[in-house]
Structure formats: structure tokens, C-alpha cells
UniProtKB/TrEMBL annotation:
Listed name of the protein: Formate--tetrahydrofolate ligase
Enzyme class: ligase
Reaction it catalyzes: (6S)-5,6,7,8-tetrahydrofolate + formate + ATP = (6R)-10-formyltetrahydrofolate + ADP + phosphate
GO molecular function annotations of the record: ATP binding; formate-tetrahydrofolate ligase activity
InterPro entries, sorted: Formate_THF_ligase, Formate_THF_ligase_CS, P-loop_NTPase
GO biological process: tetrahydrofolate interconversion
Organism for this UniProt entry: Candidatus Eisenbergiella merdavium
Keyword Ligase: yes
EC number per UniProt: 6.3.4.3
Binding, ATP: T65, P66, A67, G68, E69, G70, K71, T72
Family designation: Belongs to the formate--tetrahydrofolate ligase family.
SUPFAM superfamilies referenced in this protein's UniProt entry, alphabetically: P-loop containing nucleoside triphosphate hydrolases (SSF52540)
Length: 556
């Protein structure tokens, strides 16, 4: 069997101008990055704002397992299937981070015959958006430390600098560092920290901003430090906004590429879902809705993280209203949740399937709370048996969900037609009555506890003394009206990654909270989730190389 990168490298791509023609985008509306990548011009995006919106379809999944679920693969394959059926469709996805590419997860372009291409470009640098975000973030950090060095006119307490530097790489030794060592001219000595670029507030700001004006307003509101009397200091206060916006002027424009079957794909932004809000940019999604009759987008990791934040943060802020949700699962992953070892997942085991399907059940229940019709799809594996598939199908239909098999990894768009037909049928039969989970008027702790109890299934929430003080202070500062962005492990509905299936009788532990005032949410750290990941003992980087012809190998 060919690897994903081999399939991608054998693909015959169309020039990006020809892909754009399918959406009635002219050559003058594109800003080219070589033959197969382009950004959409600001003038073009402004010209289509009065068009009606297409249907918005969110793809999400059960909690990820080592067995694999194939959420992005399903998103891409569904878009390809719509194309084969003569439907005008666009896929709207996140950009991959270099951290997972060189770490443990690998690339994020889909898989098999359901991929977006050029795959290597997308996974490595792409159009430079993440570098621009990294540079803007670190420019803000440099201006902050320079303000302190040059007299500290604002009275910043160096023990309360909350703005962190960033790098788009997994590098655990940078989590906690000391800066300013040396002579007096080298700055003030203080503890500092790095986060991965996709966990930065600037990434969230870029993905939630709807214009350059909105971007600058959001950048200006970002809290970077506190004064000795506890007042917040913003990026606007230290004069960082204009220069950061200049670095981001191209990064704010959505990127256009294609699938293996030449379906257009807008790939833009990429906040992690376990430590950030996990959705592609609002601008890309809104633009896609003006360009096509059907827009397929996704949210990161399981529905307890990505979908919840898509609904309660992205949709709340942008006014987007999804028309249907596709919930991805695999028989293998459900059996893994039922206690089967990874090496035994290929053997029929209805007892384990019954034990593990409770994870799928909880995600179905959660999605239905938002009032959006749900279609469950099983990403097909050769080892799936008829009895196992029938069990899952009956389980879903008993809970009011449509069901379809997806074979897009093996067959591309052809393998997604059954799913596409079921999605179309659902859109025609069932009206979305979308609603957010909680009201803005609830307190921060009430919002945290609503998510913990309603989505995770927790009995309650335990706050560290530090978290209690932080939440109280954020409320005093006027941030209680913001939604919460829960930073939690992706591997479990709980904050303990070892608790598979549908955990019961547990509490969520909140250890820290801080405001992302520019993004417009309060980040709540639970469990041991890290905002700067580390590399595994055998990182994926060991297997990546490039030959004399410039062809990359081993990327995925």
C-alpha cells in the first residue's frame, strides 16, 4: 500500500487558477504563491459579501485514539464526493503546525486518496502564515521587555508579565526559561516562557478577526502584563499594534489549494483544539459560504473540544450557524475505548464494541444539545466485519442519527458518495435549530461547570487556589461576559487521558485561568495539558528527508 506522501506526490495537480475558476474567481483575484497555492485578494472578498450563504457542515469526531479516526480525511473525502456528484462545494480546513509534523502526530492534509495538495508545502511552511504569527508574537514580547528596559513608564510589574514568546515547534526546554541575564544593558532578569505558535493569542485573534480593522482592535486589547497595582497592560498600551498588523497583512488572507480530485479548499489558520479554540479562520469559513452551496469545515480533536469551541466560541462570535454535523468514528477506535489492545483491534469483538461505543454515545448526546442534525460516519477499515458495522448503525439510528459508511481513504470521492447522500438527505429533512450551550450572562465558574458537566459528564469542578484567585480577578476586571476556552487532554472526556470510554463520577481540576482579551475568551487550563509540547523518544523528524531532486520523503 502506498503511503500518503507517495499518493500525494503522484497526483497531477491543476494550476490554482483553474481550481479558482470553479468558484468563479478570476486570475486577478488571486495572489499566487507558485503554481498551486494562492491567497484571495481583499478586493475579491469584499466584492462577494452580498451573496447568499451556502450550507455549513461541521466534521468532528469521537475522542482520538492510537487506532486513528480520520476526521480530516473524511472532511476532504466528503468534499470530493460532493464534487463527483456535481455539487458546488468548498472545504475549509486548518493549517498544520510544524510541531506535530516533526513530533508524533504527523501531517494534517488528510490521507490516502482524500488529501489536499500540495501536501508537502501545506505541512512545511505553506504560505508563511505561521511564521508571520510567530514574528508578530515575538515582536510584541520584544517591545514589552524594551518598554521595561527604557524606564517602564507604565509601571509594569515584571513578576506579572503574562505575554509569552512562541515557536512553531515542540520544544519542552523552552517551557520555563530565564531572560535578561548579563549586564544591565541586556534587560531585566525575569522568568519567561514559550508556547507553541498555535497556542498563542495572536493565532486565535487572526482566526476570529473578520477584517484588518477588527484584527487591529483585537491586537490592541491583548493583555500582556499587569502593573504593580494590578491593572492590565495591553499591546495597545505599549505601542505594538501597528507593527504587528503589518507583519500579519498577508497572513490574514485565506489560502486556496485543491484536493487530489481538484475540489477547492480554503486552508487558513490553525489553533490547537486541546489548548486553543481549534477552528480555521472565520474569514475563510465566511468566504467559503459565499463561494459554494456546501461548505465542509472541521474542528480539532474530539467533539468535546473542537466542536464545543466551534459552537460556543467561533459561532458565538461570528454569527455562523451550522446546518449539520458529521461525527466520525471507527470500529477500531470504539473497540479501543472498550479495552482492546491496539494489536488486537483487527479481530471481531462485539463485546468490546458494546463497551466502547459509549464514547460515541456521549458525543452524539453532546452534539444534539446544540440543536444541529447529526450524521455518524464510520471511517472504514478492511478488518471491520458486517456484524460490527450493523451494530454501530443500529446504535446510531436508535439515537436519532443518520448513518453512513465512509471509504474515502481507499477510494477518494467515490468512497464518500454514500456519506454525501446521507448529508444531503439530512439537510433536506431536518432543520438546524442551533443554539449555544450557555448564555454570556453566566459567571465564569458557571460557564466552566456547564461545560464540565454537560459536555464532559463530570460531577463537578475543583479549582486550585491560584485558579480561584485568577477567576475572581478576571471577573473584577470585567471579563466575566466572555466565553471559556477549556484547555484539556484530547484523549478522554475527562481531564485524565487514561480514562477511556465514557468516564463517570469524576471531577475536572482547574489549575489556572487567564484572559485572551483580544481573542475574546478566557482560557481555562485543566489537568496536565501543556501549551508547549515536547518531542517523543522517536520523533517523526527522524524519518523525514529530502533527495537530490528536492523530493521530500517520510513526511507522513
Amino acid at each position: 500500500m502506498k503511503t500518503d506522501i507517495e499518493i500525494a506526490q503522484e497526483a497531477v495537480m491543476e494550476p490554482i487558477e483553474r481550481v479558482a475558476e470553479k468558484l468563479e474567481i478570476g486570475a486577478d483575484d488571486l495572489e499566487l504563491y507558485g503554481k498551486y497555492k494562492a491567497k484571495l485578494s481583499e478586493e475579491f472578498m469584499a466584492s462577494i459579501q452580498d451573496r447568499p450563504d451556502g450550507k455549513l457542515i461541521l466534521v468532528t469526531a469521537i475522542n482520538p485514539t492510537p487506532a486513528g479516526e480520520g476526521k480530516t480525511t473524511t472532511s476532504v473525502g466528503l468534499g470530493e464526493a460532493f464534487g463527483r456528484m456535481g455539487k458546488k462545494a468548498v472545504i475549509a480546513l486548518r493549517e498544520p503546525s510544524l510541531g506535530p509534523c516533526f513530533g508524533i502526530k504527523g501531517g494534517a492534509a488528510g490521507g490516502g486518496y482524500a488529501q489536499v495538495v500540495p501536501m508537502e508545502d501545506l505541512n512545511l511552511h505553506f504560505t508563511g502564515d505561521f511564521h508571520a504569527i510567530t514574528s508578530a508574537n515575538n515582536l510584541c514580547a520584544a517591545l514589552l521587555d524594551n518598554h521595561i528596559q527604557q524606564g517602564n513608564e507604565l509601571g509594569i510589574d515584571t513578576r506579572q508579565v503574562v505575554w509569552k514568546r512562541c515557536l512553531d515547534m515542540n520544544d519542552r526546554v523552552l517551557r520555563n526559561i530565564v531572560v535578561g541575564l548579563g549586564s544591565k544593558a541586556d534587560g531585566t532578569v525575569r522568568e519567561d516562557h514559550f508556547v507553541i505558535t498555535v497556542a498563542t493569542e495572536i493565532m486565535a485573534v487572526l482566526c476570529l478577526a473578520d477584517s484588518m480593522e477588527d484584527l487591529k482592535q483585537r491586537l490592541s486589547r491583548m493583555v500582556v502584563a499587569y502593573t504593580f497595582d494590578g491593572s492590565p497592560v495591553t499591546a495597545g498600551d505599549i505601542g505594538a499594534v501597528g507593527s504587528m498588523a503589518a507583519l500579519l497583512k498577508d497572513a490574514i488572507k485565506p489560502n486556496l489549494i485543491q484536493t487530489l480530485e481538484h475540489t477547492p479548499a480554503l486552508v487558513h489558520g490553525g489553533p490547537f483544539a486541546n489548548i486553543a479554540h481549534g477552528c480555521n479562520s472565520v474569514r475563510a469559513t465566511r468566504t467559503a459560504l459565499k463561494l459554494a452551496d456546501y461548505v465542509i469545515t472541521e474542528a480539532g480533536f474530539g467533539a468535546d473540544l473542537g466542536a464545543e469551541k466551534f459552537f460556543d466560541i467561533k459561532c458565538r462570535q461570528s454569527g455562523l450557524k451550522p446546518d449539520a454535523v458529521v461525527l466520525v468514528a471507527t470500529v477500531r477506535a470504539l473497540k479501543y475505548n472498550g479495552g482492546v489492545a491496539k494489536t488486537e483491534l483487527g479481530t471481531e469483538n462485539l463485546q468490546a464494541l458494546e463497551a466502547g461505543i459509549v464514547n460515541l454515545e456521549k458525543h452524539i448526546e453532546n452534539l444534539q444539545k446544540y440543536g444541529v442534525p447529526v450524521v455518524v460516519t464510520l471511517n472504514s477499515f478492511l478488518t471491520d466485519t458486517d456484524a460490527e458495522i450493523a451494530y454501530v448503525k443500529n446504535f446510531c439510528e436508535e439515537r436519532g442519527c443518520e448513518f453512513a459508511i465512509s471509504q474515502v481513504w481507499e477510494k477518494g470521492g467515490e468512497g464518500g458518495i454514500a456519506l454525501a447522500e446521507k448529508v444531503l438527505e439530512t439537510l433536506e429533512k431536518k432543520e438546524s435549530r442551533f443554539q449555544v450551550l450557555y448564555e454570556d450572562s453566566l459567571s465564569l465558574t458557571e460557564k466552566i461547570e456547564t461545560v464540565a458537566k454537560e459536555i464532559y459528564g463530570a460531577d463537578g469542578v475543583v479549582y486550585s487556589p491560584a485558579a480561584k484567585k485568577q477567576l475572581a480577578r478576571l471577573s473584577e476586571l470585567g471579563f466575566s461576559g466572555l466565553p471559556v476556552c477549556m484547555a484539556k487532554t484530547q484523549y478522554s472526556l475527562s481531564d485524565n487521558p487514561s480514562l477511556l470510554g465514557r468516564p463517570e463520577h469524576f471531577e475536572i481540576s482547574v489549575r489556572e485561568a487567564y484572559v485572551s482579551a483580544g481573542a475574546g475568551f478566557v482560557v481555562v487550563l485543566t489537568g496536565a495539558v501543556m501549551t508547549m509540547p515536547g518531542l517523543p523518544k522517536t520523533p517523526a523528524a527522524f524519518g523525514i528527508d529530502v533527495n537530490e531532486a528536492g523530493q521530500i520523503t517520510g513526511l507522513f
